[in-house]
Amino acid sequence: MQFRLKYVVEDVDRHGNVRLYFRRNGRKVRLRGPAGSPDFLTDYRRAANPPKEAEAQTAKVGRVVPRSIRWLCVQYYKSAMFTELDPRTQKVRRSIMERFCQNKNDGDKPFALLLPRHIRVRRDEMADRPEAANSMVKALRQLYRFALRYDLHDDNPADKVEYLKGNPDGFHSWSLAEIEKFEDAHAIGTPARLALALALYTGQRRADLVMLGKQHVRDGWLIFTQHKGRNSKPVRMEIPVIPALQRVIDATPTGDLTFLVTAFNRPFTSNGFGNRFRKWCGEAGLKNCSVHGLRKAAAARLAELGCTEQEIMAITGHTTSKEVTRYTRAASQKARAESALRRFSGEQNSDKSVPLLAGIISGGTKT
Prior knowledge:
Layout: E1 8-12, E2 18-24, E3 27-31, H1 38-48, H2 52-60, H3 69-77, H4 80-83, H5 87-102, H6 116-125, H7 130-149, H8 176-185, H9 191-202, H10 206-209, E4 217-218, E5 221-225, E6 236-240, H11 243-250, H12 270-283, H13 291-304, H14 309-316, H15 321-344, H16 358-363
Antiparallel strand pairs: 1-2, 2-3, 4-5, 5-6
């Protein structure tokens, strides 16, 4: 007597062999043949009645437990507090919270029961990556600030968790010797040299460097709005294009809309430019240098020339002096030490006003 079992299908492979499968709800399981044999029936029963754990795991996919940490994240992503953030900030924060939710299934736990000690445990597990650990704590602080603002919770446990001590100096700041070494490896007229000059003589972040073009130059000034915070706290910049920078721009092929372009004559992305610049640094034997280190070097050089924090902030675009102080700490100490010893030796000259960026023209890059 012949009979047909439900959900059993036949497929023929490229060699003409007939293969049997159990197919149901998008799940396809191979069955041993021939049809009706003991092996076939054993495989069929196993496929038709999967283990309860597997069923529970399948049902769990895409499910959000009400009032869980993942549920709170979903509410946060829909709020104005999140949607008003820069797209890149949104992407980074989503990634951090997704990793937090996936670890040990923490995303399914009630968000109201998360305590500072729980966060400290997770933070300490990342002690070998202090910046990543601090980013996690920062993201949780923002998540629970949302919960407080929208009356979903009455406490912010992440506010009570301390940041780990990372590298106090941050990115390596280029020395004059390193700048000269880069210049020796990349002559004027190359994209690498143009990138160096733009970074050093404007003090901008890489997201701004890849956006700058001829349309931003007006009467010898670069006029633009910084990329960071442009949707929430826009910072409009006006920076003079000093002669040393103009000479490099004039001698280098540039794009139609941006000074810096790829080998395919297309604008760089921020990450793509960062990777390309590291490659240029590697070609110059500067493995420890990055484009962000030039931003610090520009601020430090301005400090050495006697510029005030407010003058330096007018170039870098910082809205508070906290980061500028960190950037220029070593330069300020050097300038104060020199001034003190000159007074001690009776050689102190009368104070002079140092024009902004004036010293960089002679002490910056080779022309």
